[in-house]
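<instruction>
Derive structure tokens from the sequence
<entry> Chain with its tokenised backbone below:
===
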Amino acid sequence: MLVLRGVRKFYGAREVVCGIDLELKPGECFGLLGPNGAGKTTTLRLALGLSDPDAGAIHLLDRNIPRHAREARLRVGVLPQLDNLDPDFTVFENLLVYGRYFGLADALISSRIPELLQFAGLEGRADSRIQTLSGGMKRRLSLARALVNDPDLLVLDEPTTGLDPQARHLIWERLKQLVARGKTILLTTHFMDEAERLCDRVAVMDNGRIIADGTPRELIARNIEPEVVEVYGDAADAWARSAGRSVCERVERIGETVFCYTQDDERVLATLENTEDLRYLHRRANLEDVFLKLTGRDLRD
């Protein structure tokens, strides 16, 4: 569906994509993860032929990119990071006009719109103005619009950013339905739980390079201890220096929280029993733990 081999991109003297290799298989959801400035959006632009690579080869749906990008994009649906719906049109008109960009006849687009609105949970909203929709409705409409050409590949750039939990869960359910129908999805997200729920495979990108890839479960098993105990409170730092040091394989201190990563959770929990001045949370390691270990905890702008 999409193949990148040795792809590089420079902006002036700065290399923002550094010889990456990626391959998407038909019918999978693939997550491209990374902190701000890692090169994810540039990679998407290169894959869609919106920017030209300085080196390497790209094939999108068996077509050379950027030489045949226009033809390839006819079979791709794109959900941008920021909604760009036309406020002068109704919900129905937004879908109709967007479908025309793909050379589709009005009759064909109109026949697809009821199903798209149902898919997006927007039945009865065909004549609504964009200004009357909530943020979640706009995001779901943007997803429906990305499907108007019945694409083989969906490219979703942070599809649930800014949404409340109810809207996020609805979009997750819709994306699972699309994969079940055989669609291929390329997804970027800052929500590690989203990637863990949806993605068959993920790649972690930082400073323009792919630094890890595999299934979420593989990345967790390969890079992190299986058990995590988060210890809170004024005495957490003292606990980490004493008992925590002897029972944790790895300790990280962030603010008032001590993260204890361990193979033996029972030993850790035994040191925390009957400690009234400490609170703690015991959980399994997750993809966010892997992400923070690989890319660091420093803020990125």
Observations:
- The chain has two domains: 2-221, 225-284.
